[in-house]
Amino acid sequence: MIAKNAPEQTEQLSQKLLMETPCAICAARTDGNHSLLFANRAFFDLFGDMPEAEFPSDGLLGILVRVAPKDAACAAREAERVASGDAPAASVEIRQCGRDGRQLWTLVRMRRVVWKEAILVCVFEDITARKEAEEQARIMEEEFRIAVRHSGKIVFRYDISKETAYLSEEAAEQYGRDEIRNLPNLIMENGFIRSDSRVAFLRLLQTMSSGTEPTGSIVLQMNLQTQKNGYDWYRVCYSILFDRDGAPSQAIILLRNVSEQYERELAYKKWAQTYAFMPQNKMMYLEFNLTRNRFEHRRGELAGPLPDMADPTMEAIAGYFINEWVHAADRPKMKSLISRARLLTAYFGNMQIPDLEYRHRHENGSYGWVRVSIQMLPDPYSPDIRAFLLFQDIDSRKKEEQCLQDRLRSDPLTGVLNRKAFIEGAEWICSKMTEGSVCAFVMADVDNFKQVNDRFGHAYGDRVLMRIADTLHSSVRSGDLVARMGGDEFLLLLQNVADKDVLLAKLTYLREQIYQRVSSDIVISCSFGAACCPMDGKTFDELYFRSDVALYTAKDGGRNCACIYESGMRPQGYLFGMDEI
Questions:
Q1: By three-state DSSP, how is residue 68 classified?
Q2: What is the pLDDT of the chain when averaged over all its residues?
Q3: Which of 291, 369, 372, 480 could potentially form a cystine with 476 if both were Cys, beta carbons 3.0 to 4.6 Å apart?
Q4: ∠ CA(481), CA(484), CA(487), 5° rounding?
């Protein structure tokens, strides 16, 4: 049973519902200005309080005209289309000014309804938040595209189950298509990936298919340049998208050519391997940023601790190290070697920095030999240049080398210099003599040595030669030279001889030190002949000849004698003088 006043209550309820509906609604006539007939509370909340008596004289059309200029014509045109019956309904997104003065985005839905007369019903929905989110997403997408374009990266979506790649706009333009089917086989069979990287590539595909690692990266050698031979290093980064069941569905893949950076990383790792397994107490490694003039890192215990500095520049650290741990005589060449300016010049000039061996002071005050090697590499992750200084303890090897050199330069029986080493040393000393200085070239020969060998044997004769060599060596100064030329012949080079009287006294002393009676009829003794440089000659051959002449003169004098060369001296047996040969 329906109450008598039911229609009236229903109409009131309808009016109430229309007024309180949380969506802006209005109705307008289809006359010239689309005069407003009705607007609910949400409409006034959206556009501002507007009593019915003060509705704009130009009606709904006036409201639509007062939107943003870019949208006004479109909104008015759509309203006219629906009002005239050309279209039953329409919708348009427009920017309008809200009650608080801020710009709103509204979605306007319009429909023509016939009720007593044709009217235009409009619903306004505030879509500002959605449009702002869309704009933000658009900006972010554009920023990403610009970043990708300028970075040279390749970005695409990979359908894991279909094995199909969907390229981005930039990648599609580069490769002439926006979709690549059967991507794994295409890459493997057409030489896009180097054989060394194939196993890693297949492992990457397996990882993405299993979904065990949602994100990851790997470096592969690939040829993705359509007009280029050879392979570049690419870093492949991926992120997996899972479906509602948690299965891996899609992967967003980014490829970036990292050839230059990867080559730097390989060089850096290779250099690091040179010292990775060295004993810490036998090495030290210093790393500097040459570009920024900054000390970066230290490893190893060859030297003591470095000082704490507020601004540890390369010059400050290197200066402290040189003054504390480098022998004074080696400091100038060390300073020159690790000069920052020199290293930068060498790097940009593609010049090799030679290794340097220097004497290093240990904690106990002793010195040992250390070799420093310098490697300069570009930083893998910045434009800076780095210098790596590797200090290695080579004292044992240096001593072995010195020992070997001594053996090569020494007479194996007596330990004094051999003929070759003496000649080299004598010629070098004579070439470096200053004006007014005199050197004596002395030849010594054991008297009657054959009788000693015949009477006592060669082993005894060897001991005699060793004693004579020790006597000669211990009787001269550190800068003088003593050598065994072979058999029973010895040579001496005495530097800075004052005059011939002093020289003769020295030779007499040597004779007396060597003289020894070993039996009633055999005496160990030496005869000496000397020539002076530069008066008697300046070359080894000249001095050797004239000292030999003086020696024969001493032998003729009865042995166990000493004689200094005089001009015109020529003993028996010589047909020509040195100048006549």
A1: coil
A2: 85
A3: 480
A4: 165
Higher pLDDT, 41 or 369: 369
Could you give the domains of the chain? 15-131 (3.30.450.20), 152-257 (3.30.450.20), 276-398 (3.30.450.20), 410-580 (3.30.70.270)
SS3 426: helix
- φ, ψ for residue 50 (rounded to 5)? -150, 90
- Coil vs helix vs strand at 248: strand
In this structure, how many other beta carbons lie within 10 angstroms of the beta carbon of residue 501?
A: 9
Q: Report d(CA 77, CA 183) in Å as an integer.
A: 50
Residue 22 has φ and ψ, to the nearest 5°, of -75, 50
Asked if 488 contacts 475 with a C-beta cutoff of 8 angstroms, the reply is no
Other Cβ atoms within 10 Å of 259 Cβ, number: 14
Residue 449, H or E segment: helix 449-456
Indicate the pairing of strand 356-361 with strand 103-115: unpaired
Using left for φ > 0, alpha for ψ between -120 and 50, and beta otherwise, residue 558 falls in left
Alpha-helical segments (H) within 309-394: 314-325, 331-337, 340-348
Q: Which amino acid is at 245?
A: D
Comparing C-alpha atoms, which of 368, 388, 369, 370 is closest to residue 378?
388
> Which residue do the tokens 């009287």 mark?
501
Cβ 418 vs Cβ 483: under 8 Å: yes
Instruction: Give the tens place of pLDDT for each residue, 64-86.
Output: 656 777 888 888 888 888 988 89
pLDDT digits (tens, 9 = 90+) for 342-363: 999 998 988 888 999 999 999 8
Query: Phi/psi at 242 (nearest 5 deg)?
Result: -105, 150
Count of CB atoms situated within 10 Å of the CB of 1? 3
Q: What is the SS3 assignment for 538? A: coil
CA distances from 121 to 55, 89, 118 (A): 16, 10, 10
Q: Are strands 367-378 and 356-361 parallel, antiparallel or unpaired?
A: antiparallel
pLDDT digits (tens, 9 = 90+) for 374-391: 988 887 767 888 898 989
